[in-house]
C-alpha cells in the first residue's frame, strides 16, 4: 500500500468557504496535514492572515492564453480540455515551490481518501524486494484474496498481467495489482526458486484496521498503530481498556513506519496517557494560533510506557511521540523520526478535486518545531537489514528490557 504522511484537523463551524461534499484529508506521499470540516471548509480564527498581500486579486491570463494558442496550433498530439485545465491547476500549485502544496484531480483525491483510511481494492498482500532485487510477496494478509488464492511469503512475482516486473519498485507494482472490486489480476510466480506458478486473483475491497495489539511475555501491553485513521481513536481506546482490564504492568506503543493521518486521532491516542488539559500540539499559521489539548480519557495514566519510533514515523506519529515524551509519560526508543512539522489545509473545489496548501507549522509541548529535524529518541537503537532478515527486533527487545527493569 502506498504511504502517506498527514495531519487532519477539524475546526469549529464558523465561516463557510465553500459548500460541497464532506472534505476529508489523506495522502500517499510523505507530507500532509489538514484543517477541514464536514460539508463546509471552516475558518476557526477569523479571516486568514495571508503572507501574500501584494498579489493581485486576479491573475492576467493573457500570457497563459498565448501559450495555449501556441500549444493548440503546433502540438503534434492529442490534447483534451480537461487535460489542459488540470495542467494549469497543477502548475499554479507547483508555483508555490512547496512540496506539500498540491492540486489533486478527482481521481487523485479519491485515492488519497481511501489510503488515509487503509481502504482500497486489490488482493491484500504486502510487497517488497529480496536480496537479489526480485519483487516478492512479503506477506499475504490473512483472509483476503492473495491468502485465499494460495500466495506465500517469499513468492517471487515475475510478471503482472503479462508485464515483466524486472526493476519494478514495490509501490509501482502495488498500483498495477490494485483495481476495482470484482476484476482480476494475473501474477506469474516463482516459488522456492524452482516452481513456476500462475495465479489469477479476483480483487476485493481491502479494509485494514489501524491498530493491532497483543500482550507480550512479562505482562507488557503492545499496541501497534500503523496510521492515524478514522478507526484509530476507537480501536486504541478499546485496546487501552483491555490492557487495563488485564492488569498489564507497562505498555509499548509502536509507531514505527507510521506515516501519520488524522490530528484528531493523534490527540485521542495521546489522551489515553495524558490528563485533561495537557498540551498535545500547538499550531501557528495563516488562521492564527491554536492549542490542542488532551481530552481526559487517560485510561493508561501512570502506566510505564515506551514509544518505538523510526525514520518512517512522521507527522501525527511525531505529534503523539512528542506529546507523550514532553509531558513525561513515555520514553522514546528507536531512531530519529522523519521530521514533518507543517500543516496543510485541504480545500474542496466543488467538482471532486482538491487543493492541499500549507497553512501552519506545529510545535511540540516543549516548543520545538521538528520540521526537517525529526525527534531524536531517548535511546537510539538501530534495526538493520540483517536483523529484519533474521527476524530479530532489537528495538522491541530494548523496549522490553527497559520496562522489565
Q: What labels describe this entry?
A:
405 residues; alpha/beta; Pdz3 Domain; 2-enoyl-CoA Hydratase, Chain A, domain 1; 3 domains; 6-stranded mixed β-sheet; 5-stranded antiparallel β-sheet; flat
Topology diagram in text:
Blueprint: E1 6-10, E2 15-19, E3 34-36, E4 40-43, H1 62-74, H2 81-94, E5 102-104, H3 106-116, E6 119-122, E7 125-129, E8 135-140, H4 145-149, E9 156-160, E10 163-164, H5 170-177, E11 184-191, E12 195-202, E13 204-207, E14 211-216, E15 220-225, H6 232-246, E16 250-254, E17 260-262, H7 263-270, E18 279-285, E19 288-293, E20 305-309, H8 316-326, E21 331-334, E22 342-348, E23 354-363, E24 379-380, H9 385-390, H10 394-403
Parallel strand pairs: 1-3, 1-17, 15-16, 16-20, 20-21, 21-24
Antiparallel strand pairs: 2-4, 5-23, 6-13, 7-8, 9-10, 9-11, 11-12, 14-15, 18-19, 18-23, 22-23
Amino acid at each position: 500500500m502506498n504511504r502517506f504522511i498527514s495531519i487532519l484537523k477539524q475546526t469549529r463551524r464558523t465561516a463557510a468557504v465553500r459548500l460541497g461534499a464532506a472534505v476529508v484529508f489523506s495522502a500517499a506521499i510523505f507530507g500532509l496535514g489538514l484543517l477541514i470540516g464536514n460539508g463546509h471548509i471552516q475558518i476557526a480564527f477569523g479571516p486568514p492572515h495571508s503572507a501574500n498581500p501584494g498579489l493581485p486579486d486576479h491573475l492576467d491570463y493573457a500570457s497563459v492564453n498565448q501559450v495555449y494558442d501556441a500549444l493548440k496550433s503546433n502540438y503534434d498530439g492529442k490534447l483534451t480540455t480537461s487535460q489542459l485545465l488540470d495542467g494549469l491547476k497543477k502548475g499554479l500549485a507547483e508555483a508555490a515551490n512547496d512540496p506539500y502544496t498540491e492540486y489533486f484531480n478527482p481521481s487523485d483525491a479519491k485515492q488519497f481518501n481511501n489510503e488515509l483510511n487503509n481502504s482500497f481494492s486489490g488482493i491484500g498482500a504486502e510487497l517488497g524486494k529480496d536480496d537479489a532485487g526480485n519483487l516478492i510477496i512479503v506477506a499475504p494478509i490473512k483472509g483476503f484474496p492473495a491468502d485465499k488464492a494460495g500466495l506465500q511469503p517469499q513468492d517471487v512475482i515475475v510478471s503482472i498481467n503479462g508485464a515483466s516486473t524486472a526493476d519494478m519498485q514495490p509501490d509501482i507494482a502495488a498500483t498495477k495489482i490494485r483495481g476495482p472490486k470484482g476484476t482480476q489480476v494475473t501474477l506469474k510466480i516463482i516459488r522456492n526458486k524452482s516452481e513456476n506458478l500462475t495465479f489469477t486473483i479476483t480483487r476485493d475491497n481491502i479494509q485494514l484496521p489501524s491498530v493491532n495489539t497483543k500482550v507480550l511475555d512479562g505482562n507488557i501491553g503492545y499496541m501497534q498503530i500503523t496510521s492515524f485513521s478514522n478507526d484509530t481513536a476507537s480501536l486504541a481506546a478499546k485496546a487501552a481498556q483491555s490492557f487495563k482490564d488485564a492488569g498489564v504492568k507497562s505498555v509499548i506503543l509502536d509507531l514505527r513506519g507510521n506515516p501519520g493521518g488524522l490530528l484528531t486521532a493523534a490527540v485521542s491516542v495521546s489522551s489515553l496517557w495524558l490528563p485533561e488539559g495537557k498540551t498535545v500540539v500547538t499550531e501557528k499559521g495563516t488562521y492564527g494560533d491554536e492549542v490542542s489539548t488532551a481530552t481526559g480519557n487517560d485510561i493508561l495514566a501512570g502506566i510505564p510506557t515506551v514509544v518505538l519510533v523510526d525514520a518512517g514515523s512522521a507527522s501525527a506519529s511525531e505529534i503523539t511521540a512528542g506529546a507523550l515524551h514532553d509531558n513525561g509519560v513515555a520514553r522514546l526508543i528507536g531512531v530519529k523520526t522523519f521530521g514533518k512539522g507543517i500543516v496543510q489545509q485541504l480545500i474542496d473545489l466543488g467538482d471532486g478535486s482538491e487543493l492541499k496548501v500549507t497553512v501552519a507549522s506545529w510545535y511540540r509541548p516543549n516548543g520545538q518545531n521538528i520540521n526537517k529535524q525529526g525527534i531524536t529518541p531517548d535511546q537510539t537503537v538501530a534495526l538493520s537489514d540483517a536483523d529484519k532478515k533474521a527476524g530479530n527486533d532489537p528495538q522491541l527487545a530494548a523496549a522490553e528490557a527497559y520496562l522489565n527493569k
